[in-house]
Every structure is written in C-alpha cells, then in structure tokens.
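Q: Hi! First time doing this. I have a protein sequence and I read that you can turn it into a structure. Is that right? Here it is:
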Amino acid sequence: MKKLKIVGSFFMGVLIFFTVCCSPVVYAAEQLNTAAMNNVYISADDLLPSVTARSAIVMEAATGKVLYSRDGNARRYPASTTKIMTLIVALEKGNLDDIVTVSRNASQTEGSTIWLEPGEKIRLADLLYGMMLVSGNDATVAVAEHIAGSVDAFAKLMTDKAHEIGATNTNFVNSSGLPDLNHYTTAYDLAKITAYGYRNPMFEQIVSTKEKQIPWADKGYNRELRNENRMLWLYKGGNGVKTGYTNAAGRCLVTGAKQNGVQLITVVLDSLYMWNDSIAMLDYGFRHVKSVTLVKKGAVLKQVKVITGDKSSLSLQTNTSIEVPVVDDEKADFRTVIDAPDRVNAAIKKGDIVGKVSVFYENNEIASANLVATESIGKKSFFLQLCKYFASTVDYLKHTLLLS
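A: Yes, that's right. Below is the predicted 3D structure, encoded as structure tokens:
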C-alpha cells in the first residue's frame, strides 16, 4: 500500500535536522556563550548555566516538586506546546471513536498541517495523533470545532482547565499555538499541565508514539506520521511530549522521560538548543530523584474486629507496594493515611478489599494501595451463636448464685 509521510513545513524540517545534528558540537564548544547570544540572564547561583532557554524548569510529575527552575513564572508564548492542553481537553470532553467532519475553516488553517480536506470524515483519535506527532494545526481546529463548536469556545475550555489544574498564569485563545498577544503561559504552568496529562494513560500513549499511520480518505493510501519530538529517540525513557516554534516564541520543547518509576518533565521556552537543554536538565533531575518503596506489598497495616465471625479479628495487608519519588532523601515530606473500618461483618474472603492506604505529598494524594483480608473468615452458624448465648447465660447465673 502506498504511503505518504506527513511532516511540518520545510523550514521546520531543516531546523530540526540542523538542531539535532549540529547542536551537540556547538553546545560542547560554546556552552557558556550561547545564553548571552539569546540575551538570557543567568544568576550566579543557577545550577545549570549551560542551559540556553529564557525560561526552563524540571518537575517531578507525581509530586509536582520543582527540581530546577530559571524564570519559571515568566509569561512566554508557548507555540505548539499549546497542543498539550488541546489533547487533555479533547481526551476529557471527546470520544476517541467519534467521527469528525472536517470544516473548510479547519482545512484552511495556516501553519503545519496534516492536509485535511473539507468534508473529510476522520476519527477523533486519528486527529489527536496528527496534532501531537506532526503538529497539525488543521487537526486542532477540527478537534476544537467538533467538541466545542468553535475554536474560541474550545480555547475557553482550555483556559478553564488550566486554571483548575493550578496553571493560573496561562491564557489560551486558540487550540494550535499560533501567535497571539493574549495567548501565553509559563514554564511552570506548562510543566504542571503536562504532569496532569500523564495521569491519563491515553495521554501518555499518544505523546510517546514514535510513528503512526492514520487514514487518508479517498487517497488509497494512509498518512504516515513520524513524531517530530526527537527526545523519544535521543533520551532513555523518553515518553513525550511536544515541540513548538514561532518567531515570537522561539524554540520550545516540553519533554517527558521515565526511568525506574520516576516521571520527569522538562520545559524550555525560547531556547537556542532545546534538545541539549532538555537532555542536560533531565540528567540533572534523575541525579537528584529516586524511587523509594514507602509501603511494601503484603505489609500488615491494621487489625479489625469481626462481627458474627468464627474468628474475632482480621489482619489487613497491602495488595501492592507503593513507591514514591524522593528528591535528595526528603522522605519525611510524605504522609501515609489508612482508611479502613474498625470492624467488619463476616463472612470475609481472603483478598477482599476492606480499606485503602494513601500516600500524600503536600496534602495531595499521589499514590495508593488497597488493604485486603489476609484470610477467609466464615460467619458463625445460628446454632453456634445460640450455644454461645446459653453458655454465657449459664456462666452469668453461676456467678450470680455464688455471690448470693
């Protein structure tokens, strides 16, 4: 079957080639001068002075803890990293199997494209791959119109969701990231938005996909998408998320990488060497965070009373281990809370879920495990309960008679 590869504009292709192939040489030779070329102010205590981005951040996704930041709260233009929020809203508001009819307005969207045609019918899921892998602006408009009726209405959903997540210094006016004075975010907000996205397995599946084929109606062959995010190939554990570029925004990159159970997110906005910056920041992050087992599988955490059972008490144990990302051995920052009743009614089967243990970081639940019964406990028969009642009555009468 004939295939057609979809990439961004010719300019973007050339830019990516030279950035990937040539940046390491320049980075090694001029790591202290590149920031000055970009008019970046680097403070004396900056832990990563070689980073060339105006704004940069490293965040651990589960806790939201910031490991490194440079001007992380400064408002910047996000370019196509905007599409991270477009994806989140689409996943939460849309149905992946919906069939979207492409409007003329969507098909005529400027910038990078997957060459949608007016009247074309395509699954919502395929549009999401098209906008995240090759940054199809036309796909974002088709998604926005399908879910909210218009780009303006969809952009409001995006902004509202950002503020709900806690990214309060963000405002979106479109779904693609095309330049607008009122379309802005910060490195911190983008990291927080992305961390939220990783809670959805479908989000990670899409942004970590290297290559994907999606249908091309009436063509007789498929669109072949190859992800523009080179970090999926360049960095061990790379699993997302999105590139971006406009003249106003500069080179932008949000990267996700997961190693040994730790999910890190880096953001660089207006960077000279976004790949090198991101690699250096991820290396720094993984040096300072490690996964620690806070609760072991099978640990008995509570004893509960059993009512009308053939045993009077029951042990509750965890059904899985809980591992948490600890930065620089700050284990004390985590709090464990057990939610289980003090008594249960028989009968109980081994493995029944009776409660839950949760781990909190700064009052936010970041992990949990079920508490399950360690054994089966049957319910006392009516006859045995009756015998016990008579036995207790006889003991009471004997005691009373002796006292008298």
